[in-house]
Amino acid sequence: MSVSPWAKQDRCAEELGGEYVFSRKPNPALLAFPEMDEALIREETRNTLALCREHDCPVELILKDISTVRYRSERLTRWENIVMELVREDS
Question: How far is CA 50 from CA 35, 58, 70, 86, in A?
């Protein structure tokens, strides 16, 4: 199930249980702000992982609909590094 940045994640995870993949689409605007807010990226990712663990949902994180990274493509790599670090911690 596709879970947009504006969805109620807790409700989605509860309803999906372990039967479907929780396909989280984080808010791409987090990479478009003048300064990339790594703390907010970590907070949102940790919240998603915790909800999926609590409800035994398989999870995937897909960053899409990127229209700008303020000419700093390294932000995409940094986002991926942050998310993978948190996934490893959660395993």
Answer: 26, 11, 31, 11
